[in-house]
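note to self: dont lose this again. the chain is below, predicted strucutre after it. 574 aa total, dont forget to put it in the shared folder this time
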Amino acid sequence: MLAMCVLNAAAQTVRWEDYRGDSRVGAVYTGPAGAPTFANNTGTGAARLDALRAIASNPANAVRTGTAADINYRQAANHLCNMDSPAASVASCSLQAMGRVSYALIQFPLAGAYNVSIANDDNVEVGFSSDYANTSYRSASYDVPVGTVNDYTANENTYVSLGNFTAANANSCALVRVYWLNHGGINFARLRWTPPGSATPVIIPASAFRDPAAAASANGCNGSITGNGTTLTLNKALGAPRAAASDQFTVQIGTTTTGGTLREATTSGAGVGQQASTGALAVTTGTTYYLRDTMATGSASTLAGAYTASIGCTRNGTAFTPAGASPTWSVTPAANDQIVCTITNTARPILRLSKELPDGRLLATDQFTLAIAGSGAGASASVTTTGATNTPTQTAIVSPATAGASYTFSETGAGVANLADYTTTYTCSNARTGGSAPSGSATSFTFSPVAGDQLSCVFRNVRIPRTDVSIVKAASPTTARSGSVVTYTLTASNPGPSAANGTIIRDTPGTGLDCADPATTAVCAASGGASCPGATVPVANLTGSAGVGIPTFPAGGQVVLTLQCRVTASGLTP
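---
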């Protein structure tokens, strides 16, 4: 029994995500707080699928995820909410689950022609991708033509054909993506095929499915499948990290330059490379279609201001150049054309310069001017630091910068600040993978960005210690006879501007003085933030080579050492 359980678990290779609907869902909701909804019962079937596609572009919107052995979602199981039988659909209705997106890798075991069909209630859209080794299965290009299903079938045993697909080789593979939504009543989605040499269609077996997220799933695959018909696929790719974290992109296939949207796809997350795909859309021979590139709602940047755009297209595998220019291109497919286009946006260069002072300013008033100067778009920027923090928040930003132009990064002292009082280094980081990131020791340097560079540089200033410690010595009495005691006061002061921690004070007595009599210790007192090694210190240290070390001696600090010496010389002592 244990072995059977393990085998069954291993067969759960279809990944699915459920999304929350807004119609016929009931009043009870126990799913993730704040989960968005989609219009599962508004407009045409195509409009409803567009709404599911939009919400599913961000998998974080899902109210439930899981795995299945196959794509055979039976009516009795109520995988989606059935408000006609809510008592039997509590698990799905409590999540208001009205849409499911399923992903898997399918291996076609025999070479030859397959017919694929589906029974569904309510709306469904099936996509295949020849990019079967792409473990980022959500954003893969679903480029293999598949027929569309505009309505539900009569029951779960009534099927409609999605088309014929050819596997040139045994063990050809493809990714599969199934959008499936419910209006609120009974629901089912059952995917089957008719294999080569057979007249009997069967549910695609669990043995044909593999986990699309596992790289090993592509092992043993021998090419992919091809479909039939005239289709258009539009993909979105990012050539570098986004200019702003909130930036997302929508690509659209439409019948005019601004409207008549037939299919769209929106990116999510922060990835680069292939990020979204409309899937293969069946289109009409001889009709012109417009490929549109826009920023998604909520993006911080503008398309023209922050990104470059390029497009690459193939027609039945052969590259060609579409008409038009960013952000709208057009294509006119001929019969049986299978056109796949990819719009790639690459962030224009962004340059940033900031300041760090790891051990603070030499003078409290020291401030610094940071500048980036160049030519082209966003030619220059400068800021001056304020405040007393070691990491000023002021940042000079050139966005966008011009790829290929030369920019000089520099800093100067503002006001009375003198850079000669600091050791200056600079370091940079580049968000673009493999991008150049200069570093060195100077107060200026030059850099020529390329497309996609997001360079963040920091000038680090380490102050050079500068002090002017003075010692004043006084004697009382100022004259003394042999055998008498003289009290000496040594006053050490540090006016700054830097601390003089570790200063050594020595006082070598002249001839005719015995400073070990009448006491072998001297008194130490400190003020202004300075500290003594102790309340008393050995006279032998003070008058010898060891000296007395002052542990803490900040700017404005003072240390007073008091000792007594007996006069051993004859006559008067000065």
